[in-house]
């Protein structure tokens, strides 16, 4: 059984719930931050229903946009997992719009962790901080030394926020002498623990509901949330992890392949998932008018490869295939009434 207390920020998030559950299963004491007492009570019920020992779970309210509460949240914590970050379904028009919350909140957590004397900080970043803004000619393999180019015209506000927030965290942690690890997953799929789907899961839900009748010819890496959670837990104590960025992916899938996996798992969605690929010229034309498509144009017809070898060697990352992750998402959404 593990010893120590772990602060998990944004504990009611899709990935964070799985992290908290695995931490409790391994014997850690967990202090999770939530935005409201109501969210905290629902989280406690969710984790208890999943078999978590909530007697070792403490929940506190804290807001990424405010200084108050973070020193108290981090006090007496041996480890910190910073997982809270904005991920809107619709991207704002200003590519810098998400930066104040993402970067400001991250710096508050880093400073609180350092002040509390935490042994290690594990930051949930994203592959969005690695693979974007490099031009259409670059397909990888992208590795931990690669950073997204925030000045590129086709980069999304989300990718900007994750890149800048992670870079700021590394700088602040280094200045504070705080050991830090970054986890950079691709699209995270897999089963829900309650009836609140995360933003990444909503892509599968949109397909199940027929909201994406035709799909652009783009590919995304996919990884199961349980494998992502296990990597976070391993990163807390793994030798050789501090100072590293770990990309997590089980493999890439086109939107059409994701739709096929959904239809295989939930056959009555077979007529709702995308059945046709949109011609590239049509995507480029539509992107002139639809902001959400612009960041996809440079990725049309290519698969970006990423290097997961460091995560496999250091964190014991051994993911199942991406088709199973998508299928388990669809089945879980159906079981929760979606």
Automatic annotation (TrEMBL):
Domain (NAD-dependent epimerase/dehydratase) ranges: 6-245
Pfam families recorded: Epimerase
Transmembrane intervals: none
Keyword tags: Oxidoreductase
InterPro entries to which the protein is assigned, alphabetical: Epimerase_deHydtase (IPR001509), NAD(P)-bd_dom_sf (IPR036291), NAD(P)_dehydrat-like (IPR050425)
Family stated for the protein in its record: Belongs to the NAD(P)-dependent epimerase/dehydratase family. Dihydroflavonol-4-reductase subfamily.
Name of the protein: NAD-dependent epimerase/dehydratase family protein
UniProt lineage: Bacteria, Pseudomonadati, Pseudomonadota, Alphaproteobacteria, Hyphomicrobiales
């Amino acid at each position: 059984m593990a010893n120590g207390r772990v602060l998990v920020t944004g504990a009611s998030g899709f990935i964070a719930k799985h992290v908290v559950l695995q931490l409790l299963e391994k014997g850690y004491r967990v202090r999770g931050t939530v935005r409201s007492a109501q969210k905290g009570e629902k989280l406690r019920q969710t984790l208890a229903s999943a078999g978590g020992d909530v007697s070792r779970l403490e929940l506190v309210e804290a807001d990424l946009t405010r200084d108050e509460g973070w020193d108290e949240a981090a006090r007496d914590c041996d480890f910190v997992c910073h997982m809270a970050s904005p991920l809107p379904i619709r991207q704002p028009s200003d590519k810098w719009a998400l930066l104040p919350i993402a970067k400001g909140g991250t710096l508050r957590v880093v400073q609180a962790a350092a002040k509390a004397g935490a042994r290690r900080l594990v930051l949930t970043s994203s592959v969005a901080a690695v693979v974007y803004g490099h031009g259409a000619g670059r397909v990888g393999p992208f590795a931990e030394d690669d950073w997204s180019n925030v000045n590129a015209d086709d980069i999304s506000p989300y990718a900007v926020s994750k890149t800048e927030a992670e870079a700021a965290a590394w700088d602040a942690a280094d200045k504070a002498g705080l050991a830090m690890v970054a986890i950079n997953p691709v699209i995270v799929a897999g089963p829900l623990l309650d009836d609140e789907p995360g933003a990444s899961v909503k892509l599968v839900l949109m397909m199940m509901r027929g909201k994406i009748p035709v799909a652009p010819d783009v590919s995304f890496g996919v990884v199961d949330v349980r494998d992502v959670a296990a990597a976070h837990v391993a990163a807390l104590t793994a030798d050789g992890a501090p100072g590293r960025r770990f990309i997590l992916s089980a493999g890439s899938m086109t939107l059409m392949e994701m739709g096929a996996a959904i239809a295989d798992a939930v056959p009555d969605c077979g007529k709702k998932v995308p059945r046709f690929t949109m011609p590239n010229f049509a995507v480029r034309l539509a992107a002139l008018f639809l902001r959400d498509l612009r960041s996809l144009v440079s990725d049309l017809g290519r698969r970006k490869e990423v290097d997961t070898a460091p995560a496999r060697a250091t964190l014991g990352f051994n993911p199942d295939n991406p088709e199973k992750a998508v299928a388990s998402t669809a089945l879980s959404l159906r079981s929760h009434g979606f």
